[in-house]
Amino acid sequence: MTVFDELFSLLSPDRLLRDPRATGEGVAVAVVDSGVERGLLEEKFRKQGVAIAPIEGAVFRPGSAVPHPYDGHQSSPHGTTVADIVLTLAPRVKLYSADVFGPQGTCEVEAVVAAVRHAIDVWQVKVVNLSLGIPEHKLQQLQRRQLLQRAIEEAYFRDVLVFAAAHNEHPLTRSYPAAFAPPLISVDKALFDDPLRFAYRLRESVEFQAHSRGYLGPFAREPATSWATPHLAGIAARILSLKPDLKPFEIKTILYWMFRADGQPAGGEPAGARTAGES
Fold this sequence. Notes:
Elements: H1 3-10, H2 13-17, E1 28-33, H3 38-47, E2 56-59, E3 68-69, H4 78-89, E4 94-99, H5 109-121, E5 127-130, E6 134-135, H6 142-157, E7 161-165, E8 175-176, E9 185-192, E10 198-203, E11 206-211, H7 225-242, H8 248-261, E12 273-274
Parallel strand pairs: 1-4, 1-5, 2-4, 5-7, 7-9, 9-11
Antiparallel strand pairs: 2-3, 6-8, 9-12, 10-11
Helix pairs in contact: 1-8, 4-7, 5-6
């Protein structure tokens, strides 16, 4: 047995993720999305006998220098489904809602950048979940592309993990910020027999796959990268509650080693997983 075999045995998913202390305690997570229906989540988890931290947040709109107050409501159900997944996997996180969509259902680069920076500077989060994609045509202007990339890089150098959803449909369509792969963790969809399972499968700049069905909301059961991303973010929050000072590259390495420790070949078809199109 080599030293790496010993490391893999210590980094097994069961050993880390089933640890009773791996609850997300002490980890702040920002869900940059379409807002969160706070009362709905509070009621759901109260009925389950699970105590969650008070959900706070802000609303971000293009052209507004300061965020608007969060009133506990969503612009659309998408963000609530995402937040519910994070809390299902890591119920003791401190969750912040950054609503960047509004009632029109579209977001602009400037609002996403403002939300990410606010999450880092004001909320001091350790994890940012971006279950959204900005089409490449919206980043044709070099200034806008650089603005987004700098925000992602700033998060990385401030020890903040950013999880971003890959594009759902066309494999040749690049969706940002997931295409900025090195400073963040990009997530594709798959279906696993356990929501705490995931895979490393590098394809078109996207590195990880996670479980892609949610638990709450009108479209939660439809497999999507939007639901896969908070599954992996929740897994990372569980790990961070065991060792909060881990850096983004360390978390990415641990996730990769956990996948290998689970007996999976690098880049191969993960056991216990099916593509999102399979029943």
